[in-house]
Design a protein that fits this description.
single chain, 212 residues, mainly beta, 1 helix, 4% helix, elongated
Length: 212
């Protein structure tokens, strides 16, 4: 991979499930738009991306990355995949200035809050399924473009903050065993798919939302 440092015009790099351990060779790739190293379990640091202005798509899923602060200046990012980053405990504010971010996939991580997403105004898809430490959705309250949200198998028990906007189309909360009330979603008239299997919501409550 070291030879990539001599490829300043590189726009895409795909190295899924390889033995790559460092991204340092990409520091001089100032036109890089797509980086996919999903499944590269030896990758544990993305500091080489700090200050990168061109990446739009980033897949570091199923790696050993535990800190994504380096993404704070990657303002062109549109889609980020962090699925299966088991060492990742916080999004922090690293994505707060990614104003073009449309999709975030962070399932099966150890994140506890989504507070760093509150400024991502064009975010439309969020998947944080399997984040068992995640308890709240308040940070999503003012994301008016949000249409798809997967909170399955999290500790979320209150979705009242999602009632502020009616653009939500798909909501999955399968396995949210603490959830018993989703009446706040009755204003979400665009909802087409609601998955409440293995929650505490009664059929009556679910039907009320579905017919709203």
């Amino acid at each position: 991979m070291d030879s990539l440092s001599a490829a300043p015009h590189l726009r895409e790099f795909r190295g899924q499930c390889t033995r790559i351990s460092s991204l340092d060779a990409l520091r001089e790739c100032h036109r890089l738009e797509l980086l996919d190293v999903g499944g590269c379990q030896q990758v544990h640091c993305i500091e080489a991306l700090r200050g990168a202005k061109t990446p739009r798509y980033l897949d570091i899923s199923n790696t050993s990355v535990a800190n994504i602060d380096a993404l704070s200046q990657c303002t062109a990012l549109e889609r980020v995949n962090l699925n299966g980053c088991l060492r990742l405990c916080s999004l922090g504010w690293s994505l707060a200035f990614c104003t073009e971010l449309r999709e975030l996939h962070a399932s099966r991580t150890c994140i506890e809050t989504l507070i760093g997403l509150r400024l991502c105004r064009v975010l439309s898809k969020v998947n944080v399924s399997g984040c068992s430490a995640l308890r709240g959705t308040a940070a999503l309250a003012h994301l008016s473009q949000l249409t798809h949200l997967n909170l399955s198998f999290t500790a979320v028990n209150d979705v009242s903050s999602l009632g502020y906007y009616s653009g939500l189309e798909k909501l999955r909360m399968h396995g949210c065993t603490r959830l018993s009330d989703i009446s706040a979603l009755q204003s979400a008239r665009r909802l087409r798919v609601v998955d409440l299997d293995n929650t505490r919501c009664t059929e009556r409550v679910a039907a009320a939302v579905g017919s709203a």
